[in-house]
Predict the 3D structure of the following.
Amino acid sequence: MKKNFLGFFIGVIIAAVLLIIFLATGLWRFVFYPKSYDYAGPVIITLGEPGSLPVSSQTGQVHRNENLNTIIPMQDGETVVAVFSRESQDGIAEEQFVAYMPASSLERRIHIAFINYDPDERQYKRQWDAPTEAARPETITMFSQDLIGDRNNCIIVSGMNMRNEHIMTIFRRRPNTAANQPFAVIAEIQIDGSILIQETLRTLAYQQGITTGQSFNIAAYGQDNLSNNLLDQIETIYSFNPSSGVYEQSRVTRIPGTQIEQRRLRELLGGTPGVFENFITDLWYYVSPEGTVDSKQYISFDPDSKEIIFFGDEAQQIFNWQSSRYTRYGMHIRSQNISITTLLRFIDIELESLDSIRLRVVEDVRLRIVANTSWDGTYRRARAAILPDTVPSVRKGINAQYDSTWGRIQFHATGEYSITSGGLANTTTRNGHYVFFKVGEHELLEMRPEERTGNRMTYRVDSTGSRLSLSRVRLGTNGAQDLFEVPVILTPVE
């Protein structure tokens, strides 16, 4: 009897474990939804076309390496640009929004398809399609957000058209969903500047699901046609009108720009390849609305290495500069984090003065996208923000070999280095680039690994005879700050 009870008890435990695995791994979808479920995530594909404005050399390549599919196949000739998935309203399946380029689109406008599970036919179906004004695939991003405050999350599509104007199309689910028209367009904005959603704090009652929240406004920044100054802008605010059910223009404000010699402005903003990239190639520090420089937040643009470095909150993030488009006021950049490949940042850079730029940054983690306001704002060029005696001065490379705890380091006069470590059977070599330079009275060494996932490191160089001591530091407006890590000793090879 005891043996039978023990066997029954063990059987119950095994069954419970199998049930948990069955639910956690998503195998239930294949049982209850026999239609094949081949979705694994989004893919972003960049297309080039003859006669387009210059873009970075990365444009035309697939931004992510995964071989991904939509839930159901698209039609022949349709090119998938972006995919956004979320849980359906009933919570028993997944719905998918697919941005794609139609095979026969003469206008090259990007369309949105809605794929959802049909419980009557027990399969996924493509239920709705709609065009947008966007036309450049590498600028497209989609996300879902409760703009109105009624918990009916809208689908927001942003990007650029063939004239390099920014567009934003917002779709909202209809209250009484018709099978063929489940979504309505509540905003369609396009402008030769930038567009952003003005988020506001909502009440605790909204957060707890007790009441509705305040709707968000949309701000669009474009050219002031009545001004002779190319940097003067018009700010147009769009607010949601509950009566009409769409966003309507509610306020127009003129924003005066800095007075800069107009010939120089036309050179920088004329779209000539490389001119604006050369202008922003530098270190830029955040400037608060009060005009003070924040030495703890800065951004470095390096078009030659296709890198953008964000530093803030004591953390450094390196992004690959994937593609860029010239805009009326500067440049729109698409970038990807080198460590978290699902993290994308779309950066709108606008010229504010010859020593300052304005950034608007949108972050896309492929599951949810929000405006990262911590990076938005004005940045001053480091040469204008820091003291003259702390400006880095670079000197030539060396040709020498050293032994260290890292292994044997070979510095080449060309600015490259190699580190060899391990024994004869398992020797490994790491390569990269280096540069010696000075900040104030300190001699520093920056080492940048060749591997895209490696972080560049900066060290203070102290000499004791022929030996070098490398102490890791962080650069800021106050110079080199010691991170108090154990120094690495380099001993010259005889």
